Amino acid sequence: MRFKDTVNQALTAIFAQPLRASLIVLAMSIGIGSVTILTALGESARSYVVHEFQALGTHLLIILPGRNETTGGQPPMFGETPRDLTLQDAEAINSSPYVAAMAPISVGSAPISALGLEREGTIMGSTTALRRIRHLNLAQGRFLPPADIEKASPICVIGQTIKNELFANRDVLGQWLRINDRRFQVIGVLASEGQSIGVDLDDVVVVPVASAQILFNNHSLFRILAEAKSKQAMHQAKEHIRQIIKNRHEGEDDITIITQDSVVSAFDDILTALTLTVASIASISLLVAGVLVMNVMLVSVTQRTAEIGLLKALGATGNQLQWLFLTEAAILSLAGALLGMLLGKVALMILQWIYQDFPLVLPLWALLAAVAVAIFTGLLFGVLPARKAAALNPINALAKR
Questions:
Q1: pTM of the full predicted structure?
Q2: Which positions, given as ranges, span the membrane (predicted)?
Q3: How many CA atoms lie within 13 A of 88 on its CB side?
Q4: Per the count of CB atoms within 10 A, which of 15, 75, 212, 361 is most buried?
Q5: Could you give phi then psi for residue 251, rounded to 5 degrees?
Q6: So where are the chain's domains?
Q7: Buried-state track 284-321, b at ≥16 Cβ within 10 A, e below 16
Q8: 157 and 206 in contact (C-beta within 8 Å)?
Q9: What is the pLDDT of residues 298-317, one digit of tens each?
Q10: 258 Cβ contact list (under 8 Å, min separation 6)
């Protein structure tokens, strides 16, 4: 029996029992669709988080006050720490030969008012280096100019939401706004950036760091951002910064330094493992589909004993009969895989339409793996029925015994 004849015979058997074939294809498509959707969601979450951290800057180091050992947990975002980071610490870090740029960060929330309108907003104190380190773009005007880090100045750069809600269609450059009891002149408007690691940059007002410290009556820094001169220099920069702060803090190693690469790598590993775990759970439905393939094919062997007996009487070998049933199982599995991928793509398109801000991507490897697993499952669970058919005695089969 030639390969072409085997395929034709398998297709004839499939179309002879459309209900049976449809059940197998449906079961397989549900399994493949589940794997496709969950894999796409997991992979999209991984890509989104990694991209968000990469967008923070290039060769980035984040210096936070406090260490895990001193607080019994992660460094606190707010609250008591053994020793605060100061502007003098930031200037010392900037003097490191491994650091290309440094931006101190002071953050707080305050009422912002202009032209009789008022809203609550996030105030971020920093320096001109913040634009370089965070890759910020401007829609209008200019960013904070180079200046003495300890010099307060009544100027600010605002986000798009602040501009739209307080100044509407007016020309915003040169206008004055009030933060708490102090006035600041708008010199620039940030381009719309959206959310970045939980911070809405459209809803922020950037002022000189010394001005922010006066606003909030707080001389400690929220954190310090530093950019290493190269990827290779990141380790040296990290160790040198740690030594600088240790020398300034009376020998206490009381800071935590997070590198961009370590954060990206950690999230990448976690979310990749999560994606594979979720896909594995979804693959259970493929096992259910495989059991259905086996049961239906066993019923098919029972119903086609006369046909099998005739084929054996005409000279078909046991191996040829095995290949006939395995081909039938493979065709049904492939059809189920293709239908499942189509259903998965439609579901992802609907999800993308609902959640437009979250980019959904289905990696090619997931598609290929889903098809391969579907065919393998069909063949695996088709072996028993195929062997049963091949073992039938031709005389008994022709007599339907």
A1: 0.60
A2: 21-41, 270-294, 329-355, 361-384
A3: 5
A4: 212
A5: 80, 0
A6: 3-52+265-398, 83-253
A7: ebbeebbebbbebbbebbeebbebbbebbeeebeeebb
A8: yes
A9: 666 666 666 666 666 666 67
A10: 61, 62, 64
